[in-house]
Design goal:
about 600 residues; 4 domains; elongated; single chain; six-stranded antiparallel β-sheet; 22 strands; Rossmann fold; Calcium-transporting ATPase, cytoplasmic transduction domain A
Length: about 600
């Protein structure tokens, strides 16, 4: 009951019950009874507004909309315009009702987009299932997830198989198959088949929690447009208050208008000048854009990222793990001995290595003898003992060091046995299937130049560049070389420069670029931390979505700024000339705010 009495709708209805007969009796000349009814209506509709205005004064923040409306309403009573004084507060309350409803709808839509993190988990202990708070579940616990449920914590499947709906986390609509040994991120939905998993991270460090934290923190990093509104309001509100005071005094002192008419116009001027449409709608546009992007698996770390992304002119890519899958395959084998024997020796020597190329070589051989006495030679390769032989696996520098005579060039890995060259393998990283289409899509959006900066060998990088029709290719780079080349690109570019990467060595460039975008699926923590935006799914097609959402959000925020300021300036001129009264002033203020808020909600819908 208490909640109903405090609701805006109840206050509006109760206020109308007193206002309508009060206005009618005032028109018929029953002044005393009319005044009592109108005061009752004013208190019902405006008491909370008056209290808010007083609190604002105590906080020394007295030039807010509640203060302006309170002055206008009480001032109308003082000059004998009691009916309009109540109407001001009634209209203001109606406007607040629709504003809050629009804001709640917007926030509800965003919450629905981001409501991906379950609060509880079904934990299995000694064969017994119990429901526990997800935050209390320790790493290494066993949990079960049934069809239709979201995975509460990042886990690895230990039994069962299922299809996963990852759309809420990555924006990908195609279900993904998962089975024993596969990792599953928190926030994804199990479509069919129960799975038993072991948790590999805490709830707070799981993917869904990190996504929500990034989105929430993004609200703190304001865009240029949001900062403009904040600074604008600090200057605008005191200015219009001063103009209203002058409007009340100068025409009356000069004998141009009566005291009552001058004050009435000044009060109407105050009403229409409220900056609430700008203060609410512009931040809401960016919050909506951040929410819409998150639903597609794109995380902006703040509104300040939108502007440089929207004017992107050049995009710089890392190669491995960004344009390519990071999964290697053998393109060519040159063998001086029997090919199977060569591959077996390579797999033996690379037994302890977790390098992607080593994993590729080991995958080609079913059975091999692990090497002994493995020596790692940074920048060259490894030397190991396999049986009674010394096997060297690495680059041409290592071959020269062990005395092997090699007449081949352009291969990834060379091998020598007891100082004699025995073969070489060409290994290539697989280009992502969507990479070419993604770069073409970016060009359609106005991107003029594309670059690859890679530490890989010349032949590999040039091959990928040609396949994807990239404008400029740089190879054999150390991290400091990448940074230096990126500096030159930024200096030459008149628009925004975006760097896209996923590794530790990309962190300096992700920080230095106008916008750094990390590929979050396989990206390192340092890359994700350094970036301004993160694409969770690693899908390069999301890059064009990132640009489109930024541009739409900026356009809507600018529309709100132009519309709100334009209408208010026009209304203030009409009020100053006496062509618009207080009722229409309130309607103009409320109408602009509601329309701007509804316009901001369009950021939630981006195709």
């Amino acid at each position: 009951m208490k909640r109903i009495l405090k609701s805006e709708l109840f206050k509006i209805i109760a206020g109308l019950i007193f206002f309508i007969p009060g206005a009618i009796l005032s028109h018929l000349g029953y002044t005393t009874v009319s005044l009592v009814l109108l005061i009752a209506a004013l208190l019902i509709c405006g008491l909370s507004v008056f209290i808010g205005a007083v609190k604002g004064i105590l906080r020394r923040d007295f030039l807010d909309e509640k203060f302006l409306m309170s002055i206008a309403s009480v001032g109308a009573f003082v000059i004998g315009e009691a009916t309009e004084g109540v109407a001001v507060m009634l209209f203001f309350l109606v406007g607040e009702f629709f504003e809050h409803k629009a804001v709640r709808r917007s926030r509800s839509a965003i919450k629905e987009l981001l409501d991906i993190c379950p609060d509880t988990a079904r934990v299995i202990v000694d064969g017994e299932e119990s429901e526990e708070d997800a935050e209390d579940v320790e790493v290494g616990s066993t949990i079960i997830v049934r069809p239709g449920e979201r995975v509460p914590i990042d886990s690895r499947i230990i039994s069962g198989a299922c299809r996963l709906d990852t759309s809420s986390l990555t924006g990908e609509s195609m279900p993904r198959d998962a089975g024993e040994g596969d990792e599953v991120d928190s926030g994804v939905v199990v479509l069919d088949g129960a799975i038993t998993c072991v948790t590999i991270r805490s709830h707070s460090a799981s993917r869904a929690s990190v996504v929500l934290e990034l989105v929430e923190n993004a609200r703190e990093r304001k865009s240029r447009e949001e900062n403009f509104i904040t600074k604008f309001s600090r200057i605008y509100t005191p200015t219009v208050t001063g103009l209203a005071i002058l409007m009340a005094l100068i025409p009356w002192i000069c004998g141009l208008l009566s005291w009552q008419t001058s004050v009435y116009r000044a009060l109407s001027f105050l009403v229409v000048s409220c900056p609430c449409a700008l203060v609410i709608s512009v931040p809401m546009a960016f919050f909506g854009g951040i929410g819409a992007a998150a639903s597609k698996g794109i995380l902006y770390k703040g509104g300040n990222t939108f502007s440089p992304i929207s004017r992107v002119e050049s995009i710089v890519f890392d190669k491995t793990g960004t344009l390519t899958t990071g999964e290697f395959s053998v393109a060519d084998i040159h063998s001086e001995i029997e090919e199977g024997e060569l591959l077996s020796l390579l797999a033996s020597a690379e037994h302890n290595s977790n390098h992607p190329i080593a994993r590729c070589l080991k995958s080609l051989v079913k059975d091999y003898t692990p090497a002994e006495n493995i020596r790692d030679l940074p920048g060259k390769g490894i030397i190991a003992k396999v049986g009674e032989c010394e096997i060297a696996v690495g680059n041409l520098l290592l071959m020269s060091e062990v005395g092997a005579d090699v007449q081949l060039d352009g291969y990834s890995v060379y091998a020598a046995r007891d100082g004699e060259f025995i073969g070489a393998v060409l290994v290539r990283d697989t280009v992502k299937s969507e990479a070419a289409e993604a770069i073409a899509s970016l060009r359609k959006l106005g991107v003029k130049s594309t670059y690859i900066l890679s530490g890989d060998r010349e032949s590999e990088v040039i091959s990928v560049g040609r396949e994807l029709d990239v404008d400029h290719v740089h190879h054999s780079l150390m991290p400091e070389d990448k940074y230096e080349i990126l500096e030159g690109i930024i200096d030459r570019s008149s628009g925004g420069v975006v760097y896209v990467g996923d590794g530790i060595n990309d962190a300096p460039c992700l920080t230095r670029a106008d916008v750094g975008i990390a590929m979050g699926g396989k990206g390192t923590d340092s890359a994700i931390e350094s970036a301004d935006a993160v694409i969770i799914s690693d899908n390069l097609m999301k890059l064009s979505d990132t640009v489109r959402i930024a541009r739409k959000t900026l356009n809507i925020s600018k529309q709100n700024i132009v519309f709100a300021i334009g209408v208010k300036v026009l209304a203030m001129i009409l009020v100053a000339l006496g062509l618009v009264g207080m009722w229409l002033a309130v309607f103009a203020d409320v109408g602009v705010a509601v329309l701007a808020i509804l316009n901001s909600m369009r950021t939630l819908k981006t195709k």
